[in-house]
Design brief:
This protein is an all-alpha fold and 339 residues long. It is built from 14 helices and no strands.
């Protein structure tokens, strides 16, 4: 009987060991496990949202935005290899696209097909906004285009104006040549001014926000009274803001709407409305971020709620939570020396 009992115990131990051996130890739980934990619901929702935005961007052919979204997803879920594979695939597609379009653009430049070269280089910048080779090529194309405009206008202007001035009564000797030269100079100056405006607008459309805005501000500072140009600049910047707003980049969109107003010199009803909506939305986002951070990092929570109030000073919830958090932080500082 004792033998049977020992055998039974041994058999049970063997079964338990076998079961333990067959049960995998989850060191880094997958996303499905995280969703089961209420504390990670917000992160799971954020991951799902950025996944969706990444897929939408890739389906639309916007690989640069898709890469940004997958980068965020990987940061949120670093233990999910499938997300990193998606990110690597998009980055590889961007590198391939940049390589192909640079080849197309450079070949077009050699054959003097500037229109085709421009389109190819703009596609490069859409994929990789900081690509120096494409930006340099576009500047050179614009320089050649402006030079051609100057020559063509001067050639058309000179024979007509000189003939008219020679036939005009009471024209002093040499006045015809001087007037035609002045007119040609004016044409050249207009062409240069056109270049100075078109170049930063192209940079903005291609995705170089910081460079484009810097050049546009310089243009406005040099030409503050050119209302037509300022309206055109403001509209272009606001259009870029709308595009980013649709993609969910609220903070960048808000910044661009404010830049559009500053560059134009006045706002529009639509821009002011969108700014107010974005301020409310961003204030809410930072308030929620503060709530999540407060569990583990009071200092970070305070910064999030301060930002929330910068966007919307009337956010009473953020104001109350910020006041309580600062009081709690002060108490902790007073307690610390006594330890």
């Amino acid at each position: 009987m004792a033998v049977r009992f020992r055998d039974a115990v041994a058999l049970s131990g063997a079964v338990l060991l076998a079961a333990c051996a067959q049960t995998p130890v989850v060191v880094n739980p997958p996303l499905e496990v995280l969703r089961a934990n209420p504390a990670d619901d917000a992160r799971a929702r954020a991951i799902a949202q950025h996944q969706k935005l990444a897929q939408q961007a890739r389906d639309a052919g916007d690989l640069a935005s898709a890469a940004q979204e997958w980068h965020i997803v990987v940061l949120l879920a670093p233990n999910e290899p499938k997300f990193r594979r998606e990110q690597d695939a998009v980055n590889a597609a961007i590198r391939q696209g940049v390589h192909e379009q640079l080849q197309v653009g450079n070949a077009a430049l050699k054959s003097a097909d500037n229109d085709r070269a421009t389109q190819a280089m703009l596609r490069v910048l859409a994929l990789e906004p900081n690509n120096d080779e494409a930006a340099k090529a576009l500047r050179e194309i614009d320089r050649l285009r402006i030079s051609k405009i100057q020559v063509d206008r001067a050639q058309k202007l000179r024979p007509v104006d000189i003939a008219a001035l020679k036939n005009a009564p009471n024209t002093a000797p040499g006045a015809a040549t001087t007037a035609a030269a002045n007119a040609a100079t004016n044409v050249a100056n207009e062409a240069i001014a056109l270049y100075d405006l078109e170049q930063p607008l192209e940079m903005l459309r291609a995705g170089d926000l910081s460079g484009g805005l810097r050049e546009l501000r310089a243009y406005v500072n040099a030409n503050p009274g050119n209302r037509a140009a300022r309206q055109r600049i403001g509209n272009a910047v606001a259009e870029r803001a709308r595009e980013l707003q649709v993609k969910g980049s609220r903070e960048q969109a808000y910044m661009l709407y404010e830049q559009a107003i500053a560059l134009r010199g006045e706002g529009t009803r639509e821009w002011n409305t969108q700014i107010q909506l974005l301020r409310k939305a961003l204030s809410g986002e930072y308030y929620s971020s503060g709530e999540r951070a407060y569990r583990t990092d009071v200092g970070l929570a305070i910064k999030q709620w301060e930002t929330s109030l910068r966007y919307d000073p009337q956010n009473l919830k953020a104001s109350a939570r910020l006041r309580d958090a600062r009081a709690a932080q002060e108490k902790l500082k007073n307690i610390a020396p006594a330890k």
